[in-house]
Design a protein that fits this description.
Elements (H helix, E strand, L loop, with lengths): L5 E2 L6 E2 L18 E10 L2 E8 L4 E7 L4 H16 L8 E6 L5 E6 L3 E3 L6 H20 L12 E4 L4 E3 L9 H15 L6 H10 L10 H12 L50 E12 L7 E11 L2 E9 L2 E4 L6 E2 L1 E2 L4 E4 L10 E5 L4 E5 L6 E7 L7
Antiparallel strand pairs: 1-2, 3-4, 4-5, 5-7, 6-7, 8-9, 9-10, 11-12, 11-20, 12-13, 13-14, 13-15, 16-17, 17-18, 18-19, 19-20
The structure holds zinc ion.
């Protein structure tokens, strides 16, 4: 737009977009390709800018000043791990490095969504908390920390998917991420929390970092608090085969792997026609000799009306269909995001069983003869607002 000013990445002056800053003569673009168009805020983790890259992609930039060369090197190492990670549920990292004036910047794709900072009731707050801890579990497992989690760090896209954004240039530590999550949870909680969650948050805020739970431990505690025994999938599972005295008991595991990027667009929520969409995920765990052991998955759900069934489900992982297709895959779906169970044992081999808990980001497919194989899929989770 004619007359538009950008912020020079080299000196901070306002300057027209172009190859040279009018104030300092340097290139006003960060890393030669990002134009900073507005300053969004400042906090203890640095300055936040909004801008765009040369292709017009909206970006979010965080800039901070390391104390010395050793700290600059540590920030660079943390940023390298951040750029190399493979977690879903976070804003895509685009670039990181030292700026022309000796500061350090991280650039990520801007999330098209709303910050999750409005206080809500217990149920939606716990859903947000569990999802955030899911994302952090994967990040921490990969040696990546956020370093600056706060009320602007979590965005909800239009499709309901939560995205962790606004990573701090300094990185930080995993225990400090846990403490920050607890503080965010207190901000989000409008009502009195269950005692188990109050105790958990207190542990997450312990002055001694070593006394804080890990992200997977905290997620497990939140998941437990959200679960109701009557709907726990673990109760629907047949007993484990007792062979060799060593087969471990089959329990419901919380999601081990955060989810693949993907869209989960439900057109309407109350009506069965809402169950039309594709959910993305990936294989999180297998047992036995499954048709696939790893890979990205798609869970396709369509509304149908046939007998007492109201939805058709097809699941493919790593390019292999493991559930649905042909005469199979008809289910009764309920809720939003939907739940479905196809566990009757009357069909022949070749018609796998299914448990789908899209509300919890879990799908489990297994062979009719349960001991043969299981595939558990971690799904991208739309987390509803209150
Ligand atoms: Zn300048």
């Amino acid at each position: 737009m004619a007359g538009e000013l950008s912020i020079c990445a080299a000196c901070g002056a306002s300057t027209p977009p172009g190859p040279e800053c009018l104030a300092c003569g340097g290139s006003p673009r960060l890393f030669g390709r990002f134009t900073l168009s507005q300053r969004l805020g400042t906090d203890s983790h640095g300055i936040v800018f909004g801008g765009r890259d040369d292709d017009g992609v909206a970006v979010r930039v965080r800039v901070a000043e390391p104390a010395d060369d050793a700290q600059r090197a540590a920030w660079a190492a943390a940023a390298e791990a951040w750029q190399a990670q493979a977690a879903a549920g976070i804003a895509p990292p685009l670039a990181a490095g030292a700026t022309a004036d000796g500061r350090f910047a991280r650039v990520e794709e801007a999330v098209d969504g709303q910050p999750v900072r409005r206080s809500v009731g217990v149920t939606p707050m716990l859903a947000v908390l569990e999802r955030l801890l899911d994302i952090l579990s994967t990040l921490h497992e990969q040696g990546v920390t956020h370093g600056g989690i706060g009320p602007d760090s979590l965005c909800r896209r239009a499709d309901g998917v939560l995205i962790l954004t606004d990573f701090a240039p300094a990185g930080g530590t995993a225990p400090d991420d846990l403490r920050a999550v607890a503080r965010l949870a207190r901000v989000l909680a409008r009502d009195a929390l269950p005692p188990s969650i109050t105790a958990l948050l207190a542990r997450m805020e312990s002055p001694d970092p070593a006394a804080r739970p890990t992200a997977p431990q905290a997620r497990e505690a939140v998941h437990h608090a959200r679960s109701r025994p009557a709907t726990s999938p673990a109760l629907h599972l047949p007993p484990p085969p007792a062979a060799g005295g060593g087969l471990r008991r089959i329990v419901l595991l919380a999601l081990l792997v955060a989810v693949a990027a993907g869209y989960f667009i439900w057109q309407r929520r109350a009506h069965p026609d809402a169950w039309v969409g594709t959910l993305a995920g990936r294989v999180a765990r297998t047992e036995g000799n499954p048709p696939v052991r790893a890979g990205e998955c798609t869970v396709y759900i369509d509304a149908v009306r046939q007998d007492r069934k109201n939805c058709r489900i097809e699941i493919a992982c790593g390019g292999t269909r493991i559930y649905g297709g042909g005469e199979y895959g008809l289910n009764r779906c309920a809720g939003y995001p939907p739940r479905a169970e196809d566990v009757e044992g009357s069909a022949q081999d070749g018609d796998p069983r299914l448990e789908l808990y899209a509300d919890r980001g879990l799908a489990r497919v297994w062979d009719q003869r349960y001991e043969k194989w299981i595939v558990e899929i971690a799904l991208d989770v739309p987390v509803e607002e209150e």
